[in-house]
Specification:
globular; about 10% helix; mainly beta; 36-stranded mixed sheet
């Protein structure tokens, strides 16, 4: 894990690209003036049919140009082929948007510095559920191959249902009647990683297959579109993880407290199907049915050695090197490593259906009815298997030399052979099961099976009519009612050898030879390798016995949340003049009523066997005005102004009613609720939504469909910001039955302090976005086959959770984001190089028992490239070849602690991914 220089290259690349964009833009303005002198005949002669990369860019520019809101757009290069491997990667190239990588994949999206939970996702205009624990949609659930485009709203209008606080991403499938012709296309790609498989029983090659069929029947009154995608994607990850960096002396020198490095091999399988059926018998009536189904299965093989160091009985040796308060070299004696052979699986099913009817009445009203349903079911298995030289206090220990590279993790020098099957047994090397609730046991592993179900049903009705009321061109009124129900269920168990220690259960068992699959190399951390075995063999063949974890915290991770939301809206279209300047846009109002309710359990640590069912909720109503105006300044120069109030409901897990409560007999007579007999911690079903009052201004200059340059500024005032570590008072009268008559008589107050999330203060987020999409001939005619897309976003924010507290960083906020794409296209040949740079941010990662926690993620720069060739005549007409490389520079994912980039918590390398493919269109 050597120090890397990609960030410097990324900054240079971003700076060079920005300079080139300005140069192109200046030339483009000059050329735009020249082209106005061309005759209509000249224009007709030069007209050509544009396809491929250039066509997708021009279609996206057209969508952005004609919108009444401030939007960004992605259009497929061809039917069944978006520009990137995933929708998240495509979205992350848009101005003001960023992606967070998880296991090497761009999975979740942040818009304008606000995290995934502040962004809403629609499919064909309908709100979708999420497969994660909260609201943020994981975009790798939606195959890019079966979508035709995405429209991202940065400013909403009143008719946009399910709008997010930061923005709204609307995923769109093809409309067969609008497409207007028959097509059959198929794509096949072979996929591999630059890393050889890191585990002996893993896969290192995969595939991506997709096919799309579009046709029209019955004199173009019936349209059908079908698309299917099947992928198997292997990835290899070298993962270093540090427990943390405790101080060891009065000088506050820090040293690594422990490490959990892994070799991780993933295999992701996903099958997605989309069907669209349209019927339009005449100009008055049209109806459509949209269906989507996806099965997603992921398998993660993780092997490594967990090394308890400073935070254990191991001793730091006196000979060591300290650099600026961080011990970078030394040795620990008496290290009892925990050899880990872990396996994680995730199985997800995602369904979505929508039926729309549109009818135009004889008196000019357009009536729309839309019914939709979306659901997700996810089941995880988190399987940890431990082995060591013996139970806690028994067996050989290691003397580990270490070298900590600031910002790059730690490398060790071991004296033990971790590949020796005669030295290691299945056991609890650190004695982690000694304090288990219900009695000590041998914790030879852990088995966690969290599951999520999420359902959303909605019905929408609207009416629209053209008007001639001065500046008001039309009016649209509507109503949407939805119900969302999300439930999480958690089961956690210890892996033991037949029972608890007091029952005579053995402390260790030999690793069966039939379970051993080979050796996993650990050269990333300086250790030659470790014994690799299949933990599922042990479970299936009775080596392990499951004992449920009786810790009260486990039960409080179970919850359900229901939200009933009604939205009434009115939107007035504007088409007028401001002096000599044409103005169009809209003004409107949404009134949103929410009834939220959560059910969970309240657990008394003194009586965990008898949890109490608890529920709570709240009802609230907000008015959300919006305004969008576009001023046509002439010569394809537009000034857009947007103003709106938006909201984002609190995270689902923070709305949970589940609580663990405590009774302190010493405080029985206290009358102070802050120090009373009752207290609790958990969720808060009464949380109000985050609120943002925003203003946006965008200046956009277009050059036909060929290019544009734009500059935008925005400012959002945030309020009701949720403080996840707050506290509030609660009446515990429902739990008086736990007290004796004498205790009830002596009780000072039924009020008590509940620790958990609560609405706090607020702050602001503001930023500048610069973007350009230009073609080479805007500078010089010989460059006509070249093009450049570049954008830069610069964001600032300040949020106070409570009065008189220091401001915090908003999760997901990168202060600087630069995206650059160079492309070339000529006579069927095409090439593209793209770079995504984002500054450091507070990211959401997996913590203990799959809980989500926040850590500072280091800045990163991801470089991708592709080349292809399309046959446009002859016997191979319609066929195209593609070679693609992602993460070419093997950019690491890094997080750190104590606001010190040297104190690396996570350092993960994913290797580069290569794909070679062929597609055919008929």
């Amino acid at each position: 894990m050597n120090s890397r220089t990609q960030h410097n290259r990324a900054r240079l690349m971003g700076g060079a690209a920005t300079s080139l964009a300005l140069l192109f833009a200046s030339a483009g303005m000059a050329q735009a003036q020249e082209t106005t002198t061309k005759t209509a005949e000249d224009t007709a002669v030069e007209a050509i049919v544009v396809t491929g990369i250039r066509a997708s860019i021009e279609n996206a520019i057209a969508l952005k140009k004609t919108s009444t809101s401030i939007v960004e757009a992605i259009s497929a290069e061809d039917i069944g082929k978006l520009p990137d491997n995933s929708i998240a990667e495509s979205l992350a190239r848009l101005p003001g948007l960023t992606a967070q990588r998880l296991d090497g994949r761009a999975q979740v999206i942040s818009i304008r510095g606000l995290g995934p939970d502040f962004t809403s996702t629609l499919l064909n205009g309908r709100e979708q559920v999420s497969t994660g624990d909260n609201r943020g949609v994981e975009f790798d659930q939606y195959p890019s191959e079966i979508l035709s485009g995405v429209l991202v709203y940065k400013t909403p209008d009143a008719s946009l249902i399910g709008q997010g606080l930061s923005g709204t991403a609307d995923l769109q499938t093809i409309r067969p009647l609008k497409y207007g012709k028959r097509i059959l296309s198929a794509n096949a790609r072979y996929e591999m990683n630059s890393e050889d498989k890191l585990n002996p029983d893993a896969k290192d090659t995969g595939h991506r297959f997709s096919a799309t069929y579009v046709n029209q029947f019955a004199n173009d009154t019936v349209g059908v579109a079908l698309a299917v995608s099947d992928i198997s994607t292997p990835t290899q990850s070298r993962r270093f993880n540090a427990w943390g960096y405790p101080t060891i002396n009065a000088a506050n020198d820090r040293v690594i407290g422990g490490a959990k490095p892994y070799n991780q091999s993933n295999n992701l399988k996903r099958t997605g199907v989309i069907g669209v059926l349209e019927y339009k018998p005449n100009d008055k009536l049209s109806t459509s049915l949209d269906l989507y189904y996806s099965e997603f299965a992921e398998k993660q093989i993780l092997r490594g050695i967990e090394l308890p160091l400073q935070w254990s009985s191991a001793s730091l040796q006196p000979t060591r090197t300290t650099e600026a308060g961080l011990i970078t070299q030394g040795a620990f004696a008496g290290v009892k490593g925990v050899m880990r052979n872990d396996l994680n699986t995730r199985d997800t099913t995602l369904k979505s259906a929508g039926w729309n009817v549109n009818y135009q009445t004889d008196n000019g009203w357009g009536l729309v009815a839309d019914l939709s349903y979306s659901s997700a079911d996810r089941t995880d298995v988190i399987f940890e298997s431990y082995s060591g030289t013996g139970p806690n206090g028994v067996g050989a220990t290691d003397t580990l030399g270490f070298t900590t590279t600031p910002g790059g993790g730690t490398v060790f020098r071991s004296t033990l052979d971790y590949t020796n099957a005669n030295l290691f047994v299945l056991t609890d090397p650190q004695g982690w099961g000694g304090g288990a609730a219900g009695g000590a046991l041998t914790q030879a592993g852990f088995y966690n099976t969290p599951s999520i179900t999420d359902e959303l049903s909605a019905a929408r009705f609207s009416a629209k009519h053209d008007l001639a009321w001065g500046p008001i061109a039309n009016v649209e009124v509507g109503f949407n009612a939805s119900r969302r129900e999300k439930e999480k269920e958690v089961h956690e168990s210890f892996l033991t050898f037949g029972g608890r220690i007091a029952q005579g259960a053995p402390l260790s068992r030999a690793i069966p030879a039939a379970a051993i699959v080979g050796v996993a190399k650990l050269d990333m951390i300086g250790i030659s390798g470790m014994l690799a075995y299949d933990p599922t063999y042990l479970l299936k063949n009775g080596v392990y016995t499951l004992i449920a974890d009786q810790n009260p915290a486990v039960q409080t991770r179970n919850w359900s949340v229901r939200e009933d939301v009604q939205v009434a809206y009115a939107k007035f279209g504007i088409d007028t003049q401001a002096g000599e300047i044409p103005v169009r846009g809209n003004v409107g109002l949404q009134v949103v009523r929410t009834d939220q309710f959560s059910k969970g359990v309240a657990v008394n640590p003194n009586d965990t066997a008898n949890p109490t069912v608890t529920d709570d909720g709240d009802t609230y109503t907000y008015a959300l005005p919006s305004l969008n105006l576009t001023f046509d300044m002439g010569n394809e120069l537009y000034v857009r102004v947007g103003a709106a109030r938006t909201l984002a409901r609190a995270r689902m897990d923070e709305l949970r009613a589940s609580q663990s409560f405590n009774q302190n007999i010493v405080r029985l007579t206290s009358t102070d609720p802050n120090t009373s007999y009752f207290s609790a911690n958990g969720g808060n079903p009464k949380l109000r939504p985050y609120i943002a009052d925003g203003v946006d201004v965008s200046v956009e200059k277009y050059f036909g469909r060929s290019g544009y340059i734009s500059a935008a500024v925005y400012h959002k005032e945030l309020s009701n910001f949720v403080n996840s570590s707050s506290s509030s008072l609660k009446d515990f009268s429902d739990y008086l039955f736990l007290l004796s008559p004498a205790q009830k008589a002596a009780l000072g107050t039924t009020q008590g302090l509940v620790s958990g999330p609560d609405n706090g203060e607020g702050g602001y987020i503001r930023g500048i976005e610069l973007s350009a999409s230009v073609q080479g001939d805007m500078l010089w005619q010989p460059l006509k086959n070249f093009g450049l897309i570049v954008s830069g976003s610069f964001t600032d924010s300040e949020v106070s959770l409570e009065k008189n507290q220091d401001p915090i960083t908003i999760p997901g906020l990168s202060k600087k984001v630069v995206n650059t794409t160079f492309y070339y296209e000529n006579n069927g040949f095409n090439a593209r190089v793209s770079n995504r740079y984002r500054g450091k941010f507070l990211g959401e990662v997996a913590g203990l028992s799959a809980a989500r926690i926040f850590r500072t993620v280091e800045a990163e720069s991801v470089l991708d490239a592709q080349i292809g060739y399309e046959f446009r005549d002859g016997p191979l007409n319609g066929m195209a070849l593609l070679l693609q490389a992602n993460n070419i520079t093997n950019e690491p994912f890094k997080t750190y602690d104590n606001n010190d980039p040297r104190q690396t918590i996570d350092y993960q390398e994913y290797g580069s991914t290569y794909m070679i493919g062929v597609s055919y269109r008929y």
